[in-house]
Structures are given as structure tokens and as C-alpha cells.
Input
Amino acid sequence: MTILDQRFGGEVITKKGKVFKFDDIHCITSFLKSGSTEKTNVAGIFLLDYTAQKKFVPANESFLLQGNELHSPMGGNTAAFVNEANRQQAKQQVNGTNAQWNEIQ
Output
């Protein structure tokens, strides 16, 4: 899958090295909940940093912002950031709510 908007999306990588690409963080959480891949077989989950195109952040280390003004490709409207400062800067531009990976998965 080609990621349409490099500010959103991410990858799930299995222990066997298979890479699943997603346009939207919401699609990643839906995929994980679907049971298509057992969570025990997942080696890593990486989210695209909203402020640095094509830079991945480990999901469990990311700072998330959710808000309708983000307009992600599949309507999840959640963005990931590498640090709190970048999230707060984006939050000043769009109305949103802070979130953590463990809250949305």
C-alpha cells in the first residue's frame, strides 16, 4: 500500500519481517483488533511523525493528538509526534486532544 499523506499512517512489522503499511493510525488499530496478525507475532508498530515526513516513531514512544481538524486520509484524525513540544505546537494550530498509544489501541 502506498501511503497517500506522509503526515499520517504507519507500519506494523511482524517478527518474520512482513511489513503492513497503513494510511491512517485508525487503520492500524483496526488491523490489530481484527486479529489478522496475533499481537504476539508483532515485532514493532511505527507511526509517521506529523511534523517530519517519512520519519517513523515507535508507537509506544509517540505523542498523539486527536482532532477533527487534522483530516487524516481515512478519517481517524489522529497524528503522531516524536516529542511533546511538536505536539503542543500543532495543538495551537488545530483543536485537538492529547492521547497516548495505549489509550487508542
Notes: The chain has one domain: 10-104. The CA atoms of residues 47 and 57 lie 5 Å apart. The mean pLDDT is 92.
